[in-house]
Amino acid sequence: FPRIKARIRSFSLITCSKSQSALSVSMCGIFAVCHDPSRPCAKYDVGKAQEHSLRQYHRGPDCRGSYVHPQTGDILCHERLAIMDLSCVQPLMGSSQDHQVVHNGEIYNHVSLRKNELADKQLRTTCDSEVIIFLYEKLRDGSFCNLLDGVFAFALICDGEFMAARDPLGVKQMYYGIDREGRYLFSNEMKSIEDITGETKLAPFPPGHYYQPDKGFVRYYQPLWFDHRLCTKDADLTLLRQSLIDATIKRLMSDAPIAILLSGGLDSSLVSAIAAREMRRLGLPIHSFAVGVDGNSPDAVAARTVAKFIGTDHHEVHFTLEEGIAIIDKLVWHLETYDVTSIRASTPMYILSEYIRKMGIKVVLSGEGSDEIFGGYLYFHNAPNEEEFQKETIERVLHLYTADCLRADKSCMAHSVEVRVPFLDKKFLDVSIMTKPHDKQPKAFMGRNVEKYLIRKAFDVEEDPYLPREILWRQKEQFSDGVGYSWIDGLIGFCASQITDEELASASSTFPINTPHSKEALYMRKIFHKHFPSDEAARTVRKWIPKWQANQDPSGRASLVHLNSTASPADKPAHQSIPQGRTQHA
């Protein structure tokens, strides 16, 4: 890849003192094979399983492990990114040799589980992953996933029983497929199984579910907010603020060096401000990172303001249009999507994570999830009523695994960097989503309607401010816009030069599944098809499309609400008037 221009201060490896609550972080790639006992077939070859698991080498380049059950032939493979406890190699064994687990993610309450639910068990390591196999031994029921406070994609074998599971919202990526012999295959990334199961069955593993051969897929996560009609609680700003503080501090537990992704937007700025306070209290170095096309991009300017205010050692990475375009092919292979929004936003994140990893950082905090929870995207200004607003926020949260969670996980794990997302903490979700929609909809502030009013108000504390007010009340930018408008405009122009009008006109016959409707979308789709040619692979992708506006471009500037809108007044829905203080742009 081309050398990316950057302005980076001198940097030394960050270290963290290990404490009782520290995690032996399970950053990795997992691969598993489960044989259907009702369909006898040849045992899957373990050498082939290891070969396919290795396609996720970037997720865990430090060491490998595997286990094969002697009777069932079920297989567990693991690619590990080592942090500090190098003796803790997965698969991890339970109380006997045929009890094994592979896990990608973090279990933040593993110390509490050891002291309480597993007090009678003799665990061998300090690794958070170990509690998974011991909980299954004790309870023998997949609903034990509700006891886990964290994010995870795991597979286990216990006395010949097989189980796989994914965290409540799909923060960790996971896919499954069924081959011609009826065997189920599981992996963090589709590339490990697409050429095996792409002609039969291939799909994302549903978040909040576990799988067992005799039960199929079973939903274990069912919060009250799944029903939007129950979201009627009055706003509690103190509880909301404290819940996010707790969620952020919880995600600082680690043996590994931790830093902050500070885009300059509201969400990453809040997470950064909270994390900086706690890291300073612990005596840890505080490093923040931002990316943009230059130092004048909207997010870069705001990020510098925040970094100075909260006191981080701030680093900026700049990239050119040509450098961004040059990595698109490889990026699509990593992302496993053709969704335009995800690719636009993942390009700067991919470039940034490469620099972060070279500096010795393996874990970063980020602000994904807030826009979905609080209706932060500008199209939410167009919601026809409170009920539709609330339904759309829940719909967006439940499909984060196809969009922002996918982007954050895969674009950073491409360089072996783990992303943690405090806004998607289960307790914080219960507080925020259960709040009635009237308190969350955009409200007037300083002459204009402001999105995410509730979370802004919760942190607008005069006596001990977390952020400068100009940042706290700054207008929302899509991440791909905020790195610099020239990135999106240039990418659209480049794709237009690569696709002919005739190609776009025949797109429906070339790609009947999720047919691309722009030259940019068709360009991305052709790259995806080159890497993942099966129809099943194409069906795994969900396109991100804004609601309640005629212009389907995912850029925030496609909304009339944006201060630099590129939309036409004709793009506004019939029920929506142009907000006060806005200028109509032709």
From TrEMBL:
Bias (Polar residues): 577-586
Source organism: Pristionchus entomophagus
UniProt-annotated binding residues for L-glutamine: 128
Annotated positions binding ATP: 261, 291, 366-367
Keyword Transmembrane: no
Active site residues per record: 28 (for gatase activity)
Gene Ontology BP terms: asparagine biosynthetic process
Site residues (Important for beta-aspartyl-AMP intermediate formation), renumbered to this chain: 368
UniProt superkingdom: Eukaryota
Stated name of the protein: Asparagine synthetase [glutamine-hydrolyzing]
EC numbers on record: 6.3.5.4
Region of interest: Disordered: 565-586
